[in-house]
Amino acid sequence: MSDLTCQHCGHTFEPIPSVREFRDGSLHYQVNCPGCNQFCKWLSQGGPPKLYYGKHKGRAIKDVLKEDRRYIEWLSRQSWVDAKLRALLVSALQESDG
Ligand SMILES: [Zn+2]
């Protein structure tokens, strides 16, 4: 992902979205400006849950889980991870357990 420039305050930053689940169950990735905290844009929407930062950025959680389970376990324990993403990571780990 390339940097974004905020239309509200002009701040340039790397987009780190938070995950939103809509009423139909689809996932959307919302980016807010870290400078002024206003909504900037939606990133890719729909499809399977994805990681949107780190070494596996842009890949589906379940695909990364097959190759690098330790990373998913580690990420799911980090306090800075978006709550919704953490819930997705935890449920992916639980599903693959059984
Ligand atoms: Zn801004």
Structural description of this entry:
- By secondary structure, this protein is α+β, with helices and mostly antiparallel strands.
- It folds into two domains: 1-47, no CATH class; 49-98, no CATH class.
- It is built from three helices and five strands; from the N terminus they run E-E-E-E-E-H-H-H.
- The protein has helices at 61-67, 69-76, 83-97, and strands at residues 4-5, 12-13, 18-21, 27-32, 39-42.
- It binds zinc ion.
Which hetero compounds are present in the coordinates?
Answer: zinc ion
How many discrete domains?
A: 2
Give the overall shape: globular
What's the multimeric state? single chain
Number of strands: 5
- Portion of residues within helices: 25-40%
What are the secondary-structure elements, in order, as H or E? EEEEEHHH
Q: Number of helical segments? A: 3
Strand content bin = 15-25%
List the strand order in the largest sheet.
3-4-5
Distance between the termini: 34 Å
What integer value in Å does the Rg equal?
A: 14 Å
- Overall pLDDT confidence: 89
The major β-sheet equals:
3 strands, antiparallel
Structural class: alpha+beta
Low-confidence stretches: none
Helices, strands, pairings?
Layout: E1 4-5, E2 12-13, E3 18-21, E4 27-32, E5 39-42, H1 61-67, H2 69-76, H3 83-97
Antiparallel strand pairs: 1-2, 3-4, 4-5
Residues 6, 8-9, 11, 33, 35-36, 38 line the site of zinc ion (ZN).
Features:
three-stranded antiparallel beta sheet, 2 domains, 98 residues, binds zinc ion, single chain, two-stranded antiparallel sheet, 3 helices, globular, alpha+beta
